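Researcher: I'm comparing several assemblies side by side, and this is the next one on my list. It has 705 residues spread over two chains. Same procedure as the others: predict the full complex and return the structure.
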Amino acid sequence: MNLRRWLAPDNVAVVGSIVGLGSFLLPWLNVKPNRVAAGTGLSLPDAAGGSGAAPILVLWLVCMALSFTVKGLWLRRALGLASNLVLVITLVLAGSAARSLSESAGPFSRISPDTGFWLALVACYLLIFASRRAGDASVLWRSLMSWSGLAVAAILLAAGWLNSLSIMQELAIQGDRFRAELWTHIILFAGSVAAGAAIGIPLGIMAERTRKAERPIFLITSITETVPSLALFGLLIPPLAALSFAFPALREVGIRGIGATPAIIALVIYSLLPIVRNTFVGLRGIDRGVIDAAAGIGMSPGQLFRRVKAPLAAPLVMDGVRTASVQAVGNAAVAALIGAGGLGAFIFQGFGQQAPDLILLGALPIIALAVLVDAVMNALVKLVTPRGVTRSAP
Amino acid sequence: MKRFLAGSGLLAIVLGLLVAGCTGYNPAAKGPVVVSSKIDTEGGLLAQVIIQMLRDKGFQVTDKSQLGPTQVVRQAIISGEIDIYPEYTGNGAFFFNEADSAVWKDARLGYERVKVLDRQSNNIIWLQPAPANNTWAIAVPKALAQKENLKTLENLAAYVNRGGNIKMAASEEFVSSPAALPAFQKAYGFTLKQDQLLTLSGGNTALTEKAAAEGASGVNAAMAYGTDGSLAALGLVVLDDPRGVQPVYEPAPIVRSAIYEKYPELAGILNPVFETLTLQTLQDLNAKIAVQGQDAAAVARNYLVGKGFLK
């Protein structure tokens, strides 16, 4: 039998399988006697027992085998299902192992995921990506391969299966505070991107229309983009403080030297460059022939803008808003340092107390938010693209 | 496109209103009083103590604890964004540029000085401080202390001078500020060479204590604060400072005078509580939050109920 016929390695899948098998050998759960002491790492067989470790090992080997022969639709689907299955079983085992370990390790013990666990998640992501990247005609199979593992993970999370893990215990302690900071974070980035779009899109239109406006607009927005976020926050505090002292009425409305005001102003400034630049490019990049044709059939400049230029530029403008949004989600984390709140507050508290779980409690939701915002904005871009226009590659 | 612009404009307006932060107006309750703190364990604890006492006495309190580092919180109270937060008496030396004065080494004198200065310059009233000196200290692992019989900084100086193995993890500020390590070295007669120091850029005692406890990079001594909660849990002991080198840092609630004039009963409510917060008490309470991972509000509540301040 000619082995070469079957050999069709997918590089990403091979890397994923190697990472997955490697994660099996590394420490999987870390048991700390209290929140600050150093912990001991337990490997997967030690933490979850042989009966738990065996299916995982088998699945990684299956994935490894499949990643070398992933030719054809059904083998790819099998790889996708196998990687989702590994994800689900890993989380199920982590939840139950954490629960039994915390019962035996003492009342203040903390069980956290260790290197092996995180690498296993990375491996799952690589394998799912590899199985999806060749495309699949069936919507059902596409959704199954991309989302089934994450959907089950969300259910496990909501049902409290993972509550014995240290990060969930930190969440339980923070309780309402987490909800409040999450909401503040969302308002910070959503509000600043909205305001940035309201200012940036007209600026972009102006820059495209008049040569004279183009250079100063781009000069200012480019320079402000290079200022580090914390420095920009700091620069805004003294003038705003002076302003709010000079006009006490502003303080009543909520405009003060620290807190949300400088944070939002800085975030708006940061969101300007992607939006202004994309608006400019979107309008500039419209085919001259289309504009000539529209003018030729007698459209006024206003009609030309509303019915031809705006719809054609819209996808690129929306892409600029997308970039600005994802950027703002991350930048808003620093706002906590100047008293604006948001998820960054947990990150800095975690630094202060050397509690990595508190840092993760701030960082993981920010990452999830960024991914979610990116997905939603991508859908919006597709929505705004006029029918009959194929979106050019970014 | 138009709908997008209109929608974003609406969002910007809604956001503006939310930023204005309508906290709700309840004419029956006293206040609203905004209680804040710095981003650290003890700040969070003391803020919760203040919040629970005030709420129990009928005040409407806004919880803005864990607001930011010292400069941000200080700016906030001066500009009137917050009304009360716990501050340390020794910090008066830095707020008013009097770092060289000897008055900060005495608890009573330092407190009286910062009380007068802050009232004059910023209209801020200092209430009674807690008798706990949360100042810079040097901590070593218990094993080392027992082996080399290290109880005070005098013992440490002797140990270093006879060539004992020492490596201290400390912040840049601790190593270079004339009030910190150089003051210790001058008073006790020892010097740490460059290779006996592990200098970090931030003033994070949790990190230095963890390094000393685990022996990371050969570290066996750490910069610490007197009331740190993790010390006992990490097996570290603080070395005594019998020659009184460090300024005294006692936490006290500080209030904007506008709020204090409106509600002078604040002193009567908070002073008896802060009087009970000794060094040992604060260490234990901080430990409950940092080491055991309990919620600061719950720890504060249990303490106040246990002492009979709350029912």
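Model: For your comparison table: Residues 136-238 of chain B form a domain with the D-Maltodextrin-Binding Protein; domain 2 fold (CATH 3.40.190.120).
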